[in-house]
Amino acid sequence: MNLTHNTIDDTLRDFYRSEMPDPWPTMRAPARTLPMPKRTARPVWMRSLSRLAIAASIALLLIGYLALASLFPRDTGSQPGLTPVGPPRTLSQRDKGPKLDRIPKGFILTEPR
Length: 113
Prior knowledge:
- It is a single chain.
- The chain is mainly α.
- The protein has 2 helices and no strands.
- The protein has helices spanning 5-19, 44-70.
- The two termini are 70 Å apart.
């Protein structure tokens, strides 16, 4: 079955149009519903209870943060950020960079040295 782009579009359009009702049904108004009952006022202690629960959870979060932060050592250095641990590192001959007199294997020089 060799369908071209136009025939696929035509086939799909025909299919979806056949699935649509003809004529389109008219809208029926929904049945009337009863109005929602008014909310009764909650007692003052219930409103304050939820606020108290939020305040307690924030207090526990703050206490937990401070307890966890006390387990880690404080930075005594004057500079912000990470401070090195141990003696200062000096550059050795190996750390100064690649030697230019050695050529890696597989490289071919195009200019004489």
